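Q: For a teaching session next week I want to show students how multiple molecules come together into a single three-dimensional assembly. I've collected the sequence lines for a complex. Could you give me the predicted structure tokens for the whole thing so I can convert them for display?
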Amino acid sequence: MTSSRRDVILDVRGLRKSFGGTEVLKGIDLAVAPQELVFIIGPSGAGKSTLLRCLNRLEEPTDGSIFVDGVDLLHPKTDINAMRRGIGMVFQAFNLYPHMTALGNVTLALRKVMRRAAAQADEIGLAALDRVGLKDRARAYPNELSGGQQQRVAIARAIALEPKIMLFDEPTSALDPEMVGSVLAVMRDLQASGMTMVVVSHEMRFAREAAHRVVFMEDGLISDQGPPAKIFGPDASPRARAFLAGVAR
Amino acid sequence: MDRGALFLDTFFKRELIVRYLPDILKGMVVTVEIAVLVVVTGIAAGLALALVRSLRWRLVNLPLVVFVDVARALPPLVVVLIVYFGLPNVGILLPSFAVLWLVLSLVLAAFAEEIFWAGILSVRKGQWEAARSTGLGYGQALFYVILPQAVRLTVPPLTNRTIAITKNTALGTVIGVPEILNQATTAQSFSLNATPLMMGAVAYLVLFVPVVIAGRTIERRFAWRRA
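A: Of course. Below is the structure for the complete assembly, covering every listed component.
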């Protein structure tokens, strides 16, 4: 039941996922160390988002194993709701609850899942909003916030639960260019505070500057990985180099 | 008698208005009672059915969908007559008031289920995923995240449908429920004059025009900020 490697907080082995007859993940092995920022890049259709969504079982893997902090995520007896509290997720489309204020969004799980009293939940929620620089917008509704602010509220919603790992699924892809910086700054701050992060994104500059490791995926497999200096340098695989050359254009 | 006087004498005869006003008022009370009961039970049952349907249990959903489609397809009058005149033959005696309440509740429940279900489906999948990703269970995600949004979307169609079905309380007249139309037709057959029917029509307007206006206000209030 438990993973043998103590220096690994997230251990993915032989992960496969099929939709109908189409195999999207064809055997992924990925070990993430505590406080590591792993950046996943690759052409669209490579399976990056599917991999990320398997990591908190928004998609059910077809085969393979996922251990989070030593717990078998795919075991039938694992309390998936309890596990998900420890795995924050940030979505491309923010997915804030439109009928709740920013603070309501951040505190919902605190109140209903963690059973915190309202005052205590608000305190934690405000602290989380403060970390993303939006404490003063706590009473605003999502439609009163810019895209960048909405995404930061979504990050606050995840970090309020004090997750062990954060998953980012193209967090800046839906943002206007001038909004991207504020979200990346928050992610930078999270990384500096020691958060373990797995990020699917096309922000190559951010990957180069902040990632500990860059994973290149194509066609359902990890085909190359290493520190940014390697993946963005001449030692990368030809496919990775070709992909990056295309992106840089 | 000129045409104007004849018209007034046929539809708005003062002595008949005075004579039958108490009956019409009594009918209004009965109509309101049934309408309120139908709205409460029909919408509650419709919501419950939609929640059951959202669980997607195939064995439950098949009969549920069959019920909903049949109840929406049949004219309520047919169902009222079958239940009222048929059930006594199998030993179930229901007062006419109860029959009307039951049938209209079932019809409203069927329409309300479809409306709530459409509302639940129209909430974007990302809302479920966000809620579940923070550890909310299925029921918690449904109640705190999905339903509040779904219900807002359902208010306009639900308001219209509710008005349409509560007006069907007039069907009670064929099985002897002493609601507005029943009182009016009884009075008409005694007085041989259309004035009581006109009074019935006015009584319906008095009851339902405010509801229609309230419905429009509610629609406007709920046509609300969507992110």
